Amino acid sequence: MSAATARGGGVPGPGPAPGPGMPDDRTVVRTLVSLKIRLLRNGLRRSRGRAALYVLGAVVGVLFAAGIALAMALLEHAVDTGSAADAGVVLTGALTLGWAAIPLFLFSSDESADPTRLTMLPLRPAPLLRGSVLAALIGPGPLISLVLFTGAALSGALGGASAAAGVVGVPLAVLTVVVLSRAVAAGNARLLSSRRGKDFAIFGGLLFALLVQIANVGSQSVFGKPGTDGLDLEPLAPIASVLRWVPPVSAVDAVRTAGEGQYPLALLQLAATGALLVLLLRWWRASLQQLMVTADASTVEVVRGVQESGRGWRFLPDGRVGAVMQRHLRYAWREPRAKAAVFTSIGMTLVVCVLSIVQGWSTVYLVAMTGMFLGLQMLNLFGMDGSAFWMVAATLLTPADARDELRGRAFAVLSYAVPVTLVLAVVLAAATGEWSGLPSAVGVAFALLGSGIAIGAVLSVLAPYTMPADNNPMRNAAPGQGGLVMLNSFGSMFGSVVVASPAIAYLAWALATDSPTWPLLLAGPLYGTLIATLGLRLAAGRLLERLPEILTKAVER
User: Fold this and answer.
1) Per-residue b/e over 462-497, b at no fewer than 16 CB within 10 Å?
2) pLDDT at 227 over 80
3) What residues contact residue 281 under an 8 Å CB cut-off, 6+ apart?
4) Which of 90, 115, 134, 186 ranks highest by number of CB atoms within 10 Å?
5) Which residues contact 488 (CB under 8 A, 6 or more apart)?
6) What CA–CA distances, in Å, run from 281 to 2, 106, 430?
7) What is the C-alpha separation between 216 and 520, in angstroms, rounded?
8) What is the pLDDT of residues 109-134, one digit of tens each?
9) Which residue has the higher pLDDT, 358 or 175?
10) Residue 405 CA: distances (Å) to CA of 315, 324, 398, 462
11) What is the rounded CA–CA span in Å between residue 149 and residue 167?
């Protein structure tokens, strides 16, 4: 409960004047700005590698944005001025959409965007809003947007009137998109900081990646194909004719409108963006005030009986194997990082398959990627448990316990990997018409899946790594563990291909000599089962020996 509620103010209002124990408005603003700077600085101090990557990423981002801006400024020399301005409008609209979507996907990775962290402080909405606006303008994101908006404005600039409109419109557009992003984050803070919000970020991120690839395919028709003359920007005209009236895109397009001498229309476009900025600020302030005085309903715990919590799991085997399967499947559904790993593996396969179908080079044998990618779910099995792994480790007393522990986790992965592989194989066969290749494709996929499970189990024992303490689905390893993550990921993918090479080699030989490929439908799953069983036995034999090191990696944060 905030200080406003403690004083009895249940109804949101403008807030009282600062009391003896409350900081004045200027102090609050300065503190919030300095807090953002300290967060950036302290984040870079955690490791030299992180600092180098951050600086390199920021420099590359600014240079890339500068290159795009320069290309937009020179675009009018390659095409007519109207088409160049249309390209600038579309670029501005895409950037605005990106700013609106950022908090939905990356909210949990930006601590400065979460206003719920300040609910216990005696802060009034007005100074909190001003300080948050200034803090949000600090960082490479607003700078890159400023460069891109400048390039978009230059694509339609004509004379001194355009320059005057650009001086007002470009900074106004940058401020609006930044406020839009923070207003969306504040308005959905409770949802985005919950488990369901993180689940939404996972699904939204996969959808966003798919849309980007589809847009990439669509852009080929806009910018022409190799061998064509010039650029064809005509398809952008109908899109730009709508976007140029939508703020804050209208503020950037006001540069073109002013250059054409339509001064009242340019002022109207700037005024529309200004009105949107005012509305966003009011929404942001209302969201902050509500967060300060309203209790979070998600803190209410629902207690369930043991009998009810186990309902729905009766299909699992008895004993330790069934208990381990249930625990692992619950992690895969409830733990954000585990869920992100599962759906990212499925999503990568779906993106490649969809693009292959759209571009006309698809084949049913692409389903083999499912076995390879879903085999990655066996990596770092014990690191995902975190500090709770010591309870599991205390029950690993005999080699049989170790084998059952690994078998339960492997069966949990197979419980969703096998259905996904079969469904995707049928979909690819229907989309490509290669029904004759369906049996061999499924066989090779299962051979790769079994190989991935075997290698993942061995690497989980021999090369474990530490997971971060938070549940951020965007972070899958603690600082300093990058080498082990690369070893696990690439070792599993390339290792599964090498181990499953007999099945792959037979398929290549059969296709080259027109020999029957259907035997792989039986040989592939049998080979995968044999390799997975061997890998699990090898990993179980070393698990008890390396248990102290694995426990240290899992527990430390």
Assistant:
1) bbbbbbbeebbbbbbbbeebeebbeebeebbbebbe
2) no
3) 129, 133, 179, 183
4) 186
5) 379, 380, 456, 459, 463, 465
6) 21, 21, 51
7) 36
8) 556 666 767 767 777 778 888 888 88
9) 175
10) 18, 6, 11, 16
11) 11
Length of the chain (residues): 557
Angle, alpha carbons 531-467-556 (nearest 5°) = 115
The count of other CB atoms within 10 Å of the CB of residue 74 is 13
One-letter-per-residue 3-state SS of 266-285: HHHHHHHHHHHHHHHHHHHH
Tokens of 89: 């409008």
**33 residue type, one letter:** V
Distance separating alpha carbons of residues 510 and 517, to the nearest angstrom: 6
């090779």: which residue's tokens?
444
Residue in this structure with the two tokens 């599962």, named with its chain if needed: 342
Q: Which long-range contacts (CB under 8 A, 24 or more apart) does 233-237 make?
A: 233/79, 233/83, 233/84, 233/86, 233/87, 234/83, 236/83, 236/86, 236/87, 236/89, 236/90, 237/82, 237/83, 237/86
Q: Are 333 and 339 in contact (CB under 8 A)?
A: yes
Tokens of 245: 């009236």
The packing angle between helices 195-222 and 336-359, to 10°, is 20
> Residues with Cβ < 8 Å from 306, sequence gap 6 or more?
none
Q: Token digits for 185?
A: 């984050």
Q: What angle do CA 469, 472, 478 make, to 5 degrees?
A: 45
Report which secondary-structure segment, H or E, holds 361: none
* pLDDT tens readout for residues 294-310: 655 444 443 344 344 44
Are the CB atoms for 247 and 276 separated by under 8 Å?
Answer: yes
Burial of 230 (C-beta count, 10 Å sphere; 0-12/13-18/19+): exposed
pTM, two decimals, is: 0.57
Q: Residue 389's closest CA among 197, 543, 225? A: 543
- Residue 422 pLDDT more than 70? yes
